[in-house]
Specification:
The chain has 63 residues and is mainly alpha-helical. The protein has a domain at 24-62. It is built from two helices and no strands. It starts with a helix and ends with a helix. This is DUF1192 domain-containing protein.
Amino acid sequence: MDLDDLMPAKKPSGVVIGENLSTLSVAELEKRITDLNSEIERVRIELDKKRKHEAAAQALFKS
């Protein structure tokens, strides 16, 4: 048996997609929306970087 098997499972931190929302308060739901909007912005920034990198690579190989 591994020592990790003896440790209790870690509860995921932050937003869990599909989580039951009925137990959350108004403040918790508002924070969740703020957290999700922040994560969406972070993902959009990374997506933009990758698209620019991809476009630069395509331009390089088309020349």
